[in-house]
């Protein structure tokens, strides 16, 4: 759903989608969605479903990236999606183990971790065009450390953390803002924007800390003015963070909404 929202609401010349290790039914549904999209003429789809050999699944991710590079070299603004890097890594693992390599971290041979940056470092901007890439990563558990996710996270410029807890609450997109990070945020925002964003994150942090006291019935209005102010904004902030699939919110509208919460905080 989130990928569909990004395709529909993003301005780009070409969209390249690589579906790696997905079920055949999911690929069929995605193709049907693309056919109904007004962006269909800008889309290129590369896929290797879960029943494809491991080598084919590895090659599909490489091919999707190569297609994106081709259009970038033609001066295009390209958006690349790879879903998912976890299944790409598992395919690399299967190939490596079959060739006799010894397993290391969590059963992944060392060559898997060598190959990840070779793929992830290929997108980016050149003097001709640009590739903005989104890679999905499947976590084995939200509680335990995941070496594959940690490795991929260390290479990329940032990450959007999708929370099962938020999804279970009907909060979509299920993005946990406090666990999401952009390493280039300071390079692409104004000082005022960064200050307002920091104020909203502090507000969300306060609300998260208050939730425990609310659950225990220990929250008492009137004891802390900052807590009371945060509680007054809780419902409106949650509504602002939710967005239906078909709803479009421009950058200026989103920035204006964020500033409104920052000014009240």
According to CATH, what is the class of the largest domain? Alpha Beta
Largest sheet: 5 strands, mixed
Order of helices and strands: HEHEHEHHEEHEHEHHHH
Q: Give the total of beta strands.
A: 7
Total helical elements: 11
Number of domains: 2
GO molecular function, one term: proton-transporting ATP synthase activity, rotational mechanism
InterPro entries: ATPase_a/bsu_AS, ATPase_alpha/beta_chains, ATPase_F1/V1/A1_a/bsu_nucl-bd, P-loop_NTPase, T3SS_ATPase_C
Protein name: protein-secreting ATPase
EC number: 7.4.2.8
How would you sum up this structure in a few lines?
The chain has eleven helices and seven strands. It has helices spanning 2-9, 24-36, 54-73, 85-98, 110-120, 147-155, 164-168, 185-188, 191-215, 225-241, 251-264; strands spanning 14-20, 43-48, 77-83, 124-125, 130-135, 158-159, 181-182. The protein is globular and about 65 Å long.
């Amino acid at each position: 759903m989130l990928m569909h929202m990004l395709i529909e609401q993003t301005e780009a010349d070409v969209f390249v989608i690589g579906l790696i290790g997905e079920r055949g039914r999911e690929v069929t549904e995605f193709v049907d969605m693309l056919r109904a999209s007004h962006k269909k003429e800008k889309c290129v789809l590369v896929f290797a479903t879960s029943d494809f050999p491991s080598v084919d699944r590895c090659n599909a991710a490489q091919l999707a990236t190569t297609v994106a590079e081709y259009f970038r070299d033609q001066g295009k603004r390209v958006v690349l999606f790879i879903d998912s890097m976890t299944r790409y890594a598992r395919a690399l693992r299967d190939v490596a183990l079959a060739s006799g390599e010894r397993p290391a971290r969590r059963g992944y041979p060392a060559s898997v971790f060598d190959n990840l940056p070779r793929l992830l470092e290929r997108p980016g901007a050149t003097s001709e065009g640009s590739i903005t890439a989104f890679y999905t990563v499947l976590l084995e558990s939200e509680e335990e450390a995941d070496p594959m996710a940690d490795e991929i996270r260390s290479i990329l410029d940032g990450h959007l953390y999708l929370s099962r807890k938020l999804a279970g609450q009907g909060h979509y997109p299920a993005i946990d803002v406090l666990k999401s990070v952009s390493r280039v945020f300071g390079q692409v925002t104004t000082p005022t924007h960064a200050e307002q964003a920091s104020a909203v994150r502090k507000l969300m942090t306060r609300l998260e800390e208050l939730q425990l006291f609310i659950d225990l019935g220990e929250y008492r209005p009137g004891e802390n003015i900052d807590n009371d102010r945060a509680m007054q904004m809780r419902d409106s902030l949650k509504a602002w963070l939710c967005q239906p699939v078909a709803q479009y919110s421009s950058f200026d509208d989103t920035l204006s909404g964020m500033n409104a919460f920052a000014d009240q905080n």
